[in-house]
Amino acid sequence: MKRSHLELGGKAPAVVFADADLPRTARMLADFGYFNAGQDCTAVTRVLVQDSVYEQFRDLLVAAARDTVTGNEDDSKNFYGPLNNVNHFNTVMGKLKGLPGHVTVETGGKQCGTRGFFIEPTVLSGVHQDDAIVQEETFGPVLTLQPFTTEQEAINLANDVDYALASSVWTSNHGTAMRVSRDLDFGAVWINTHVLLTAEMPHGGFKFSGYGKDLSLYSVEEYTRVKHVMSDLSA
């Protein structure tokens, strides 16, 4: 029997409260969702926004997406490059082409140009919690938007997926951040940031996102066999 250490997929939510710095948050979520064309298990994919600022934040996020430039990464003006291969490109494009009729493509959703595996920075609204684009890992430059009213509703929406690798909370209220981070069922919860990792902090998920931890002393334990030796010194 072999032990396994698995770091698998993710479907990271970012929970945005009305008291967050909305322009800063929109710009950062675009960065944390679109970097490496969204091909990172911890990348932001689901943006949950308090309903009192939903339309305002939607417009800010769409503007941030449209300001994000994709293309050959040899050009420094491009923020991200292509998807990894043709099969993955076709998978992501298939998800976008197969969206239900109730979903609105706020921006993006198409291939960039006619050559290469480039996809536009995409923002989707009107999604339902049981939609495949919400439930399944996309691994592409696609962000979904969902409104919420209460903290508990935000927590329920965030946790209601099979993946549990990473998440973030965006608010100016530290009490709110602590309450929500306690109940988010993810291996990592960032507050007013996302994706950042340090060597001394463990990284790893729950549920379908894997088992075990990278980084920190916890990762050393993954490669350690614990042995119990006891001696009776009176013998």
Automatic annotation (TrEMBL):
Gene Ontology MF, one = oxidoreductase activity, acting on the aldehyde or oxo group of donors, NAD or NADP as acceptor
What keywords tag this UniProt record? Oxidoreductase
Q: Which organism is it from?
A: Rothia aeria
Q: What is the name of this protein?
A: 4-aminobutyraldehyde dehydrogenase
Q: Which Gene3D superfamilies match?
A: Aldehyde Dehydrogenase, Chain A, domain 1 (3.40.605.10), Aldehyde Dehydrogenase, Chain A, domain 2 (3.40.309.10)
The question of whether Hydrolase is a record keyword is answered with no
Q: Which residues form the active site?
A: E7
Q: Which InterPro entries does the record match to this protein? A: Ald_DH/histidinol_DH (IPR016161), Ald_DH_C (IPR016163), Ald_DH_CS_CYS (IPR016160), Ald_DH_CS_GLU (IPR029510), Ald_DH_N (IPR016162), Aldehyde_DH_dom (IPR015590)
Occurrences of domain Aldehyde dehydrogenase (ranges): 1-229
The UniProt family comment states: Belongs to the aldehyde dehydrogenase family.
